[in-house]
């Protein structure tokens, strides 16, 4: 199974297992109640109106609403496919009706930090595929690029239209305290999940309109228009007239197909597959009922390896033969650009504070999680000595697979991982287990805290950076669990940013 | 519009229509079985009408009522079973999700989800009438959503062409499998047995009431053929369907300002066969007439696929 919200996981200490391992149980920061315990203390400011509404509600009615919401999702077809199985195995991502609420003040700091980071990522990508100043300046070791699978040599010297490499970014954030946010991962390739952000809000508006008259929640519904505008602003020099945008999908059996269709529909553009496209007169054109029509901007939801069998994986049937040559000649915009994976690579991640500083001249506003690169012998030694307290991830892994969460792992799992680490140290990084914040979910026994993360969605074009207020909150529905991935029992919540 | 999308719309509509027609065929077959000492012959002809007797015989050999119904309703080995075609219809709806309205998509998706429930297990004889009714109701809801929410543009035209191509195909098959009971020599016998067969034909196209309004209570072979082949008031007749295909292709020609080979073929289909009188049809041979019609209808379908670039 592939996670429709690609390549990200959150981790932190699990309260119970920590107490088992003899440490004092630590209370995670709660989005609704703050650092205190959940007793009689008042909720945090952003939750005041929600909490008073909730107190007057009948829990049975709310649980019924919760089931209604899932029925809406099922009928709407907001499901993700499970690979290799019949269509009957489409799954729903569970939805929890308690919103994750962020104050306007918190958001303005977060969004400043996100914008800074995303600008730095685009500057970094341009530099890495051109003069590599950051390496010349000695701020990034040469081998981090040269030997990195995510580096795409074919992109060297290529000038993407508008100078933008990563048009759509999903920055995964976790919170550990009142003012403590960490970036867990920068999804700079093809981040997904934005359709859930939009549908979650629609569902909440439909079910609890009264909540939105009591709270002034910043809207998210114009994301598709903003996406269209942002993509159109990146049209290549070869485009004439109003730019034609298309969404490229691997097809109806892809785990995130619903989202691809949703975005194309909402933007009012064609949803194409590789076999709808071909090169015609130096442009990429789609086969329509009236003949071939050129496309200017292709929002592709296919990985680099598969976009062009002539230039990359020859066995790929999903892509368009020759599209990379057209791209290099300025005939089409590919969003995100090929080769952006080098920026969200987990080994590069550890250099992000330097990268931000190098390209913006400012200190990074958002913190990085301290990271040990196991390719470094002294770091490897530390990691091997402290495995039970650490989270170890594969450098190119995604979806919460292939990782070790030390505090919850068994002795055997730790022993097995130790061998893997020794065999291929360069393939791993390690981080301390963060105490991820919790947010209440509705259970049969009332509200109960569960760990959450946050993925805001960021759009970049020559006209600027646009961040939709909020994003997608993913929640680990299992008590104590730190894995929020939908493929591993995670759910989602509506995310509110209140007006300041 | 993408060629692929045009193809998706065409096939989505064909499969939805096929699900409904198969439900009707089963209903008519069951009716015959209840009206007299049912023979397995009747179920064989139902299977033939659904164009899936060969697959059935390969898998099961012997024709029984229970097995035939299960094959037609829910057997995954039967690409024309209601469950199979609904899944294809939904896959095509997914493919064209950006071209259809949210209401149409949701009605197709919900139909599929409900039919999966209804057809999760073998349907007992007692539950059969309700299951068949549900299938027809559900496909009716999809039709209603299309009718009520879709723009009347090329998207709608391709969907309609699919609907009527499938329907014409189905009606022609129903007539062809039973053509021998409609031959003048057979009708001269005029036994009550044959009456049951005729009624079954009308029932297969939900036309008992309509026929009575136009031709009265005595089903006569020529009247039945006239009604199902030539009558433009009858929404499942060959003339009606061929006319609709021609009209919808005509809208496309206007809309795109381009006349293509499929337009001539559609014109020919509407004129050549359907301009004939019933006597001419019987003189030519009913079976031959229907076979030629089915062949030309299939050729027209292929021409539409080519002309509008459904595939590369």
What does this entry look like structurally?
The complex is a heterodimer of chains A (500) and B (312). Chain A is 30% helix and 23% strand. In chain A, helix 3 packs across helix 7 and helix 4 (104-128) packs across helix 14. Chain A has one domain (15-369, 434-497). Chain A has helices spanning 15-20, 48-56, 59-76, 104-128, 133-136, 143-146, 194-207, 209-214, 223-232, 257-267, 323-328, 341-344, 346-349, 352-360, 377-385, 411-423; strands spanning 79-80, 91-92, 95-102, 168-177, 180-187, 245-248, 270-272, 277-280, 283-288, 291-295, 297-300, 333-335, 367-368, 372-373, 390-394, 404-405, 428-432, 438-443, 446-455, 457-461, 464-467, 472-476, 490-497. In chain A, a hairpin with a 2-residue loop joins strand 20 (457-461) and strand 21 (464-467). The longest helix of chain A is centred in the first third of the chain and has 25 residues, at 104-128. Chain A is of the alpha+beta class and 500 residues long. In chain A, the strands form six sheets. Chain A has a five-stranded mixed β-sheet. A five-stranded mixed β-sheet of chain A has the order 13-5-4-20-21. A four-stranded parallel β-sheet of chain A has the order 7-6-11-12. Chain A is built from 16 helices and 23 strands. Chain B folds into two domains: 1-150, no CATH class; 153-312, no CATH class. Chain B is 77% helix and 0% strand. Chain B is mostly helical and 312 residues long. Chain B is built from 17 helices and no strands. Chain B has helices at 3-35, 40-49, 53-60, 65-74, 82-95, 102-118, 128-149, 154-177, 179-182, 184-189, 192-204, 208-215, 221-230, 238-256, 261-273, 278-284, 286-307. The two termini of chain B are 15 Å apart. The model of chain B has no long low-confidence stretch (mean pLDDT 91). The chains are: A alpha+beta (500), B mainly alpha (312). Chain A binds chain B through residues 74-77, 87-88, 252, 257, 261-262, 264-265, 269-273, 275-276, 286-291, and chain B through 1-6, 87, 90-91, 94-95, 97-98, 102, 105-106, 109-110, 113, 116, 154, 256, 258, 308-309, 312.
